[in-house]
Design goal:
The chain is an all-alpha fold. Among the domains are: about 35 residues, no CATH class; about 35 residues, no CATH class. α1 packs across α2, α2 packs across α3 and α3 packs across α4. This is PsiF family protein. Pfam families: PsiF_repeat. Keywords: Signal.
């Protein structure tokens, strides 16, 4: 009976650890989705935002969470990239984007 406890405990710990990892990813997805909805993004803009948000923005409980300014910069950079802006046009777009968000 005692020998059965250790394997069952290990299996329980393994299942619990997988549940926590999925929860963190689900929280990140929920947050990014809410942000995209709040910004009224649709189509390709929404896809780009969600991709950037899920890749770059760590979960809220991570030690390296982005500041609001860093989040703005990331979003504006992604938007400028999808619009293939460069030079003065990119500079003007980034300036305007960072002011209004």
């Amino acid at each position: 009976m005692k020998m059965l406890r250790v394997p069952l405990l290990m299996i329980g710990l393994l299942l619990c650890s997988q549940g926590f990892a999925a929860t963190a990813q689900q929280n990140k997805m929920t947050t990014c989705n809410a942000d995209a909805t709040a910004k009224s993004l649709k189509g390709d803009e929404r896809k780009t935002f969600m991709s950037t948000c899920l890749k770059a923005a760590p979960a809220a409980n991570d030690a390296k969470a982005l500041t609001p300014q860093q989040q703005k910069m990331t979003t504006c950079n992604a938007d400028a990239k999808t619009k293939a802006l460069s030079g003065d046009a990119r500079k003007a777009f980034m300036s305007e984007c960072l002011k209004k968000k």
